[in-house]
Each structure stands twice: as structure tokens, then as C-alpha cells.
Specification:
Mean pLDDT: 85
Largest sheet: 2 strands, antiparallel
Number of strands: 2
Number of helices: 1
Helix content: 25-40%
Shape: elongated
Strand content: 5-15%
Low-confidence stretches: none
Strand order of the largest sheet: 1-2
Structural class: mainly alpha
Length: about 70
């Protein structure tokens, strides 16, 4: 409620003359960004090791006998 146009006076607040901020900030976009940033920091803190598949992959579709 502090970024965008004031509802009573129409004056811009904290937009830094950037037209995209005149409507304010979208809460959903901020929440998703904060969640994503926290996930990046969490993943950097605890690195994971992953096993690489070294065997050749066979058929992906089932055979007539399996069906």
C-alpha cells in the first residue's frame, strides 16, 4: 500500500518515476519471488549428490505381451 498512486490525492509514492510501479506491487509475484529466492539459498547451503544413470535405457512402451 506504500508503492503506487495515493487513492485520495493521486500523487505517486515510491515509484521512482517508473510507470510500471504506479499500479503498485503484486503480492502474488512478490511472494513467489521470495519463495524462489529462499529455495535457491537453501539449495546452495546443502548441496546434493546425484547418481548418473549409466545403463542403456531399453523400450519405453510396453510390449503387446505386457498389455
Amino acid at each position: 500500500s506504500t508503492v503506487g498512486q495515493d487513492l485520495e490525492t493521486g500523487a505517486d509514492r515510491m515509484t521512482f518515476r517508473w510507470a510500471e510501479l504506479s499500479d503498485g506491487l503484486d503480492f502474488a509475484a512478490i511472494a513467489m519471488g521470495m519463495f524462489g529466492f529462499a529455495e535457491i539459498l537453501r539449495n546452495l547451503e546443502t548441496p546434493e549428490t546425484r547418481d548418473v544413470l549409466k545403463n542403456k535405457i531399453g523400450r519405453l512402451l510396453p510390449s503387446w505381451q505386457d498389455l
